[in-house]
């Protein structure tokens, strides 16, 4: 059996190692450059590879192809594979059959990383043998090849879910859905929504789907579609006989005739959106029958996620916050919504078809100055130019932070929450966040 892997990054190399271990004839092809550390791994494992091209005769003879989530279905080589009827799948689809572990899969437009990390934190604190992977950390396939975990908590992007056929998590979470990556879905929101719901398409009556019952797109989907999974909703405004909700500043979770309550003030994560993330993760902990004392302790000591509303430094009584992970408007909405002081907002990058008008009321209420950090800022300037007193364009993170320091006063907040992808000026959102933190430290 010939396994061809498109993309020599973390998921590609992980899949190559698992494929080799399972007896496949493996070939890795990357249209860009493969990082040196990954090349070394491929060489040590005697896996053939190529970079900066796709050689068709070495690819179109595949029995199965694993495509990295970063490669579009519209790329010429993927179209040719599909025309030939060759199966093109994602890493999780390839790796899942090779593990007996229970899988918890988490998707959503925002909050999925925090929910994934918190769920992993809760299960690990309970002493369970649990791995963390998917769209985060070490490749899932690589872990399946090397480790013996009883459980996996996987963060799953819509691109990873596009490439599944039989994959099914025992517990699935959809944190929320808002327009994102529409450039990859023919600019049709319904295509993107359907991609998220692929997480539940193979679930049975034995499985669970935990979801945000306040979310408009999710509720709309349920009007015309069904899933076999048992439904566990969570909400900030409704109450349930089976599900999770907030009432009188208490988080209440009712699952399988059991109840769990905790004062929200003892939960380490702040902000309404994080209450939802906490309800989703705690619902998993309850399904896994983790002790209440362990859940309470874990929720109160969880540190949060780097680059997501991360408090960096306070300088001259101005708080600098790194929210570089906010790569869409909805994520930035959460960030601005949780600001309690006049805000200098650093925004911009590669626009994925954003509608900034959704932020208008929050910008009017909270933002005193906008610093545009992107190659093309026209759209942001057009929307907010008449709303804020100061609108500044910069082309480097150092300049952005220096300007922010200049226009901020005691008691203000400087918030990096770009609402855009980072690829115009940075390698990725982590690089953007790290440059922000470095620039703040250098003030």
Automatic annotation (TrEMBL):
InterPro entries the record matches: Mur-like_cat_sf (IPR036565), Mur_ligase_C (IPR004101), Mur_ligase_C_dom_sf (IPR036615), Mur_ligase_cen (IPR013221), MurD (IPR005762)
EC number, as in UniProt: 6.3.2.9
NCBIfam families: murD
PANTHER family in the record: UDP-N-ACETYLMURAMOYLALANINE--D-GLUTAMATE LIGASE
Entry GO CC: cytoplasm
UniProt keyword annotation of Cell division present: yes
Residue ranges occupied by any Mur ligase C-terminal domain in the UniProt entry: 307-420
EC supergroup of this enzyme: ligase
Binding site for ATP: 108-114
Stored Pfam families: Mur_ligase_C, Mur_ligase_M, MurD_N
Annotated keywords: ATP-binding, Cell cycle, Cell division, Cell shape, Cell wall biogenesis/degradation, Cytoplasm, Ligase, Nucleotide-binding, Peptidoglycan synthesis
Origin organism lineage: Bacteria, Pseudomonadati, Bacteroidota, Flavobacteriia, Flavobacteriales
Origin species: Flavobacterium bomense
GO BP annotations, alphabetical order: cell division; cell wall organization; peptidoglycan biosynthetic process; regulation of cell shape
Protein name: UDP-N-acetylmuramoylalanine--D-glutamate ligase
Catalytic activity: UDP-N-acetyl-alpha-D-muramoyl-L-alanine + D-glutamate + ATP = UDP-N-acetyl-alpha-D-muramoyl-L-alanyl-D-glutamate + ADP + phosphate + H(+)
Cell compartment(s), UniProt: Cytoplasm
């Amino acid at each position: 059996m010939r396994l061809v892997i498109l993309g020599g990054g973390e998921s590609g190399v992980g899949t190559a190692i698992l494929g080799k271990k399972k007896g496949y004839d493996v070939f890795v092809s990357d249209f860009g450059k493969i990082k040196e550390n990954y090349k070394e791994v491929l060489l040590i494992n005697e896996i053939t590879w190529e970079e900066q091209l796709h050689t068709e005769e070495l690819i179109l003879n595949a029995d199965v192809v694993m495509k990295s989530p970063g490669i579009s279905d519209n790329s010429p080589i993927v179209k040719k594979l599909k025309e030939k009827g060759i199966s093109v799948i994602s890493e999780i689809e390839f790796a899942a059959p090779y593990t007996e572990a229970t899988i918890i899969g988490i998707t959503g437009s925002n909050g999925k990383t925090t929910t994934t990390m918190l769920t992993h934190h809760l299960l690990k604190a309970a002493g369970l043998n649990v791995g963390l992977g998917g769209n985060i950390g070490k490749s899932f396939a690589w872990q399946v090849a090397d480790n013996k975990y009883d459980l996996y908590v996987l963060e799953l992007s819509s691109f990873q879910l596009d490439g599944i056929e039989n994959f099914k998590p025992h517990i699935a979470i959809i944190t929320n859905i808002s327009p994102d990556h529409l450039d990859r879905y023919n600019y049709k929101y319904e295509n993107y929504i359907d991609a998220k719901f692929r997480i539940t398409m193979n679930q049975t009556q034995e499985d669970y789907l935990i979801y945000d019952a306040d979310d408009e797109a999710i509720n709309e989907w349920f009007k015309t579609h069904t899933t076999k999974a048992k439904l566990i909703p969570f909400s900030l405004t409704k109450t349930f006989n089976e599900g999770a909700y907030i009432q009188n500043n208490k988080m209440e979770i009712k699952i399988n005739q059991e109840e769990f309550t905790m004062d929200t003030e003892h939960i380490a994560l702040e902000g309404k959106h994080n209450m939802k993330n906490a309800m989703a993760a705690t619902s998993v902990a309850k399904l896994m029958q983790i002790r209440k004392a362990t859940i309470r302790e874990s929720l109160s000591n969880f540190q949060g996620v780097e680059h997501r509303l991360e408090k960096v430094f306070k300088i001259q009584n101005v708080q600098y916050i790194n929210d570089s992970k906010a790569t869409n408007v909805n994520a930035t909405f959460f960030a601005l919504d949780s600001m309690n002081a006049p805000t200098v907002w650093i925004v911009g990058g590669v626009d994925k078809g954003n509608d900034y008008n959704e932020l208008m009321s929050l910008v009017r209420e909270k933002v005193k100055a906008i610093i545009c950090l992107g190659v093309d800022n026209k759209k942001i300037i057009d929307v907010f130019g008449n709303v804020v007193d100061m609108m500044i364009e910069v082309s480097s993170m150092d300049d952005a932070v220096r300007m922010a320091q200049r226009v901020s006063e005691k008691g203000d907040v400087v918030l990096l929450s770009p609402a855009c992808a980072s690829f115009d000026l940075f390698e990725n959102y982590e690089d953007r966040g790290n440059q922000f933190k470095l620039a703040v430290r250098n003030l």
